[in-house]
Amino acid sequence: MVGVPLVDVRDRDIQRGIDLHHRTDDAFHRAPTFLALCASALEALTDAGVRRGTARAVGHVGSEMFLDGWLVREQGHIDNYLAALELDANELLGWRDQGLAFSELKARLTTWGAPHDYAEAPFVLARLTDALRARPALAVQDDQVAPVAKYLPSLQQMVERRAPELLNELQDALGLAD
Predict the structure, then answer these.
(1) Residue 121 and residue 160: Cα distance in Å, rounded?
(2) What is the DSSP string of 80-147?
(3) Collapsing DSSP states into helix, strand and coil, what is residue 5?
(4) pTM for this one?
(5) What is each CA distance from 152 to 9, 111, 163, in whole angstroms?
(6) Measured distance CA(85)–CA(113) in Å, rounded
(7) Among 37-46, 94-103, 145-154, which is the least confidently predicted range?
(8) Which residues have CB under 8 Å from 45's CB, separation 6+?
């Protein structure tokens, strides 16, 4: 997220958290529900005339953003997220830039607070457009903004409807199921 390599982790708990993040990311991207959401978006958006690369990126990243929007509705998730932002981990991490980019990101996220905006399709459209702009094969071109905007509410509904199933798949894949 910060675009700067992490070169040293001097805390076992943080390292375990990083390892869990990588395992979770891998399991998430292999989860049948996530793959189905992405496939559905690809089909609907390409049928609407959106380029394949853009359609894949919107399905992938848009699903993740809407899942964050769904998760933020649960107070426990918000409390944990905000508590994590309060941790001072810079002394426990070694960054190539001495933690400058991480500190700036943490300050922005702390100011923003819980990402409630990810539950709003217009906000997600703006973030997608901005995030994909630097990737020409994935960028939302001007003539594709309207079909993407039209599709996003249905993607949001699908993500929210299938979120519990997706979380169960993640828990199973990570061996965390009760």
Answers:
(1) 12
(2) HHHHHHH---GGGEEETTTTHHHHHHHHHHHHH-S-GGGG-HHHHHHHHHHHHTT-TTT---GGGHHH
(3) coil
(4) 0.90
(5) 38, 27, 16
(6) 9
(7) 94-103
(8) 54, 55, 58, 59, 147, 148, 151
